[in-house]
Amino acid sequence: MVYTGHSSKGAALTKLILASFPFHGALMAAGERLTALSGLTSARWQVLSVIARAERPETVANIARNMGLTRQAVQRVANDLAATGLVAFAPNPHHKRAVLVMLTATGQARFQEMSERQVPWANALADHLNKTHVDAAACVLGELAKLFEHRVGEP
Amino acid sequence: MVYTGHSSKGAALTKLILASFPFHGALMAAGERLTALSGLTSARWQVLSVIARAERPETVANIARNMGLTRQAVQRVANDLAATGLVAFAPNPHHKRAVLVMLTATGQARFQEMSERQVPWANALADHLNKTHVDAAACVLGELAKLFEHRVGEP
DNA sequence: ACCATTATGACAATATGTTGTCAAATAGGA
DNA sequence: TCCTATTTGACAACATATTGTCATAATGGT
């Protein structure tokens, strides 16, 4: 493929972006397969994870900010999780509308189950990779996310 | 954050995966902003790009395979593109059902417009990054996509 | 030539995420 | 205190992508 007009770095970045699409698709598919064994979906597992890893109960809007998603997307998933009994809403003493989301006992157990599958999976995958490159990749993606948010290069 | 049970490489991979979510979200948002100026959307631009860069007209199913998406997803977008006159379907001498997708003159012009915006955008972003790291990142994402597809580490 | 398998497009149901809008709750400055 | 701006959850409309199902077209082995 030709990258007409791209600088050397620009071509490299475009290649990275083009590589990220199949990566994301394959990651989502793998996530679905892993989570399906727990009766979860990838999206619900992600939200559940953020809630489980948080030090204290958070509001939906806060969870959304942590995940880089919109409030509404997380709200709908959180409602689904509540409907299936994995999370529950608790009153927020600091805010009448913005209630706090907490794992139920079932939710904690489900998260634990998922972790027990996710950890050996990540370890097995990582064995095929160069740690330095993986660290560099995570670093680049983090930097790029910031650049995107700051609208760098946009007209 | 603690990565209980993870190997050193496994923890690095999990960090990469967690970094990929906000990256993907921010990339999609940037894509929407770039494409909105052409009256396109990110998904339609991606499909249009694959068609434009292909050496010869392809079928919808082929395009889907190239993109790592399902046939049906690409079919719907392709139908949308056809409805807005950016692509057209041509009979396939080798297959009665699987028609070929081609850019119209309008579609070519629209793709050209988008390229003229995308190239300086990628160049400006890439100026803030280390090319070696970007290359490594693209390489890691490509390798991971293959590992995901081969179900490595899955029970 | 025949038949089983695979590939393809059409269609429907569902999951996920976005934007827009609204009213209530909160925060911050005059 | 009061007024404005922001934040929040609820709701609706829509874009995107998935799975499943179906009928038709192509393929490959016997």
In short:
The first copy, chain A, has 155 residues and is mostly helical. Chain A has helices at 8-36, 42-53, 60-67, 71-83, 105-126, 131-149; strands at 58-59, 87-92, 95-103.
Polypeptide structure, described:
The structure is a homodimer of 155-residue chains. In chain A, helix 2 (42-53) packs across helix 5 (105-126) and helix 3 (60-67) crosses helix 4 (71-83). Chain A has helices at 8-36, 42-53, 60-67, 71-83, 105-126, 131-149; strands at 58-59, 87-92, 95-103. With 155 residues, chain A is mainly alpha-helical. The model of chain A has no long low-confidence stretch (mean pLDDT 90). The two termini of chain A are 26 Å apart. In chain A, strand 2 (87-92) and strand 3 (95-103) form a beta hairpin. Chain A has six helices and three strands. Chain A is globular. The first copy, chain A, has a three-stranded antiparallel β-sheet. The relative contact order of chain A is 0.09. Chains A and B meet through helix 1, helix 5 and helix 6 of A and helix 1, helix 5 and helix 6 of B. The structure holds a DNA duplex (30 and 30 nucleotides).
Helix content of chain A: 55-70%
Task: State the distance separating the first and last CA atoms of chain A.
Answer: 26 Å
The shape of chain A is globular
Rg for CA atoms of chain A: 19 Å
Going across the biggest sheet of chain A, name each strand in turn. Answer: 1-3-2
Number of strands of chain A: 3
SSE blueprint:
2 copies of one chain form a homodimer.
Chain A: H1 8-36, H2 42-53, E1 58-59, H3 60-67, H4 71-83, E2 87-92, E3 95-103, H5 105-126, H6 131-149
Antiparallel strand pairs in A: 1-3, 2-3
Chain B binds a DNA duplex (30 and 30 nucleotides) through residues 25, 28-29, 32, 41-43, 59-61, 69-77, 80, 94-99.
